[in-house]
Write a structure and sequence with these properties.
- The chain is an alpha+beta fold.
- The protein has a single domain, classed as Alpha-Beta Plaits, CATH 3.30.70.
- It is built from three helices and four strands, in the order βαββααβ.
- A four-stranded antiparallel sheet has the order 2-3-1-4, with helices on one face.
- The protein starts with 12 loop residues before the first strand and ends in a 6-residue tail after the last strand.
């Protein structure tokens, strides 16, 4: 679905994170994502999110989050809030994902604008 946002208008930013989570890591992974979403939901610019678990179909990614922000201007503040959260918890997120055997694929998206 394309969007017809006029040039110069502020466009929403969508952060999509996909995860391949081994069954043995599911509980610890879900706990971290749920805690992280609490932090994200409290940030300025947050609009909505989805936390999804695959139930059918091919593909290695069995969890996905989609988070919508008012614009990309909020992304650095959200990233800083998550980094602060990780520091307070004593979590090295990259090391934790490696220890749990979780593979990730993350990117930020904007609505498609036809040429």
């Amino acid at each position: 679905m394309s969007s017809n946002i006029p040039a110069g208008d502020i466009a929403p930013l969508y952060r999509i994170n996909k995860f391949a989570v081994p069954a043995s890591a599911r509980a610890e992974f879900v706990d971290l994502v749920e805690k992280t979403l609490v932090v994200i939901r409290s940030q300025d610019g947050y609009v909505k999110d989805l936390f999804l678990e695959q139930h059918a179909g091919p593909g290695k990614y069995n969890f996905c989050t989609m988070i919508e922000f008012e614009s990309e201007a909020f992304a650095p503040k959200v990233a800083a809030a998550i980094a602060d959260f990780d520091t307070r918890l004593g979590v090295d997120r990259a090391a934790l994902m490696t220890r749990l055997g979780v593979e990730t694929d993350s990117a930020s998206y904007k609505s498609f604008q036809p040429a």
